[in-house]
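Collaborator request, handled under Task 6.
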Amino acid sequence: MLLHLSAEGPPIYQQIVEQIRSRIISGQFQPGDELPTIRGLAESARVNPNTIARAYRELENEGLVEKRRTRGTFVSQNTPSLSVAQRRKRLTPEVDRVLILASQTGVSVEELIDLIQRRRSLIEQKP
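Structure tokens returned to the collaborator:
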């Protein structure tokens, strides 16, 4: 699993939670899919295994994943769906950051929408 982690911004475990949560909610991960092992993901992401364990615990507390003793961590069969208000609340800070950055760099709203659409098509093509 490819993770994009940054030393800047939120703690690493929160970045991991957000990225896995996003993949589950978007359908990239299906109910029953097995997540990488804690040790395996820690090695590929070059982070401490405790960081991955903390992220998995948070996802488990949200009901997005479930641990199966001795078998691993899996996407929950009963993934909670988010309401429109919850989805907007989760996206608003990210949209604000993108809009501010676009304004600071002189990118118009039309250019931003075009970029979002192109990036979305690229992301949807990836397995």
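The cover message to the collaborator said: "Residues 84-105 form the longest helix (22 residues). The radius of gyration is 16 Å. Please let us know whether this matches your experimental observations."
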